[in-house]
Amino acid sequence: MKKKDKYIAIFSAYIPPHLGGIERYVDNLVREFNKLGYKIIMVTSNYDNNNDIEINNENLIIRLPVYNLFKNRYPIIKHNKKMKYLMEKLNNYSISFIIVNTRFHLTSHVGVKYGNKHNIPVYLIEHGSNYVTLDNKFIDFFANRYEDFLTWKIKKKVSGFYGVSNACGKWLRKININMDGVWYNSIDTNQKLPKKEKHNTINFLYAGRLIKQKGVDNILIAFSKLSIDYKNIKLYIAGDGPELNNYKVKYKDANIIFLGKLDYKNLLKYYAKTDVFLYPPLWPEGLPTSILEAGLMKCTVIGTNQGGIVEIIENEKNGIIVDNDWNSLYFAMKRLISEKKLLNKYSTEIYNTVQVKFSWEKNAKKILGDIDEKQKNR
């Protein structure tokens, strides 16, 4: 692929400043492709009434119109004259290939349809390792059947399926899709980072959406019980979500600090003062970016055996894996409070793991290499 006159089109339901794992994955991938000399067209949803077309760092952003219903969680594309007009803008560019993110976002289906129509290969990146859940069995049943329908509709129309972890591949096989390879979620290991702060307390941090599936209840219960016996500990909760107000009312411990939604720059400041990063989801995930961020900032990580987490954390080597209950989390946290040598050991090991295995500089080149190989065999 010639860098000068070829474009890569990436379809994603959301892009930053909208916060989420897929958004950060796409943002980092675009940045790394730019470093390697490639131009990008990003096609996303106009969920926040921004400009339909925008140039950002020489990358073209096209925002498709969406209905107001569910637009902040699941954008539904309006197939109207404006959408047709915006999609026709892609005809002005020589697109080498298209990347779409997840099977069930409708932006992916728009990207696949465009690629098939114009004979452009499309590669799909899977970011999850199970059905999406809304924590309601009745609603989940119908939502899962809808996801099955979208999977059936898209699976024979893409040139290759890739996942952000091996856990994604296991999940895809369960729904009769063979994954072509792993395009690991990664992090910019060369970025400028704040210095770790010295402090007299043991600081814990959670960063992510405040929903029950993330295991935040277990974190708050475990910490509340620890704070009875230990006065030199603090818990920072970064993020927003439907449970935020409930947590604020229920947990009024002075050592539990709810930070709300933070941008990446401010979140790094809290990683800098964190000893232990807590990420114990109850539901499988792809490969959480926040664990990579914490590892790069030399935070010891406690996680659960969900999705791709165990592809980052090897229990008792570079972190701790616990069961899906507050009791297991409680004893792991207590152990790290008591055995500070473990904090130094695990924080060093997880930093080395991230540097070696989860660098965008390396993995972006792998993605391009895999696609080039696919293109040769078309």
Which architecture name of the largest domain does CATH use? Answer: 3-Layer(aba) Sandwich
What is the N-to-C succession of helices and strands?
Answer: EHEEEHEHEHEHEEHEHEHEHEEHHH
Provide the CATH topology of the largest domain. Rossmann fold
User: What helical percentage do the residues reach?
Assistant: 25-40%
How many DSSP-defined strands? 14
- Biggest β-sheet, characterized? 8 strands, mixed
- What's the helix count? 12
What is the CATH superfamily of the largest domain?
A: Glycogen Phosphorylase B
Layout: helices, strands, pairs:
Blueprint: E1 7-11, H1 21-35, E2 39-45, E3 53-56, E4 59-64, H2 81-88, E5 95-101, H3 106-117, E6 122-126, H4 137-154, E7 160-163, H5 166-174, E8 181-182, E9 202-207, H6 216-229, E10 233-238, H7 244-250, E11 256-260, H8 264-272, E12 276-279, H9 289-296, E13 300-304, E14 320-322, H10 326-338, H11 340-357, H12 360-376
Parallel strand pairs: 1-2, 1-5, 2-4, 5-6, 6-7, 7-8, 9-10, 9-12, 10-11, 12-13, 13-14
Antiparallel strand pairs: 3-4
In short:
39% of the residues lie in helices and 18% in strands.
What can you tell me about this protein's structure?
There is one protein chain. This protein has 378 residues and is α/β, with parallel strands linked by helices. The protein has 2 domains: 7-186 and 359-376, 3-Layer(aba) Sandwich (Rossmann fold); 202-357, Rossmann fold (3-Layer(aba) Sandwich), CATH 3.40.50.2000. The protein is built from 12 helices and 14 strands. It has helices at 21-35, 81-88, 106-117, 137-154, 166-174, 216-229, 244-250, 264-272, 289-296, 326-338, 340-357, 360-376; strands at residues 7-11, 39-45, 53-56, 59-64, 95-101, 122-126, 160-163, 181-182, 202-207, 233-238, 256-260, 276-279, 300-304, 320-322. Strands 3-4-2-1-5-6-7-8 form an 8-stranded mixed β-sheet, with helices on both faces. Helix 1 (21-35) packs across helix 12 and helix 6 (216-229) crosses helix 10 (326-338). It starts with 6 loop residues before the first strand and ends with a helix. The mean pLDDT is 93.
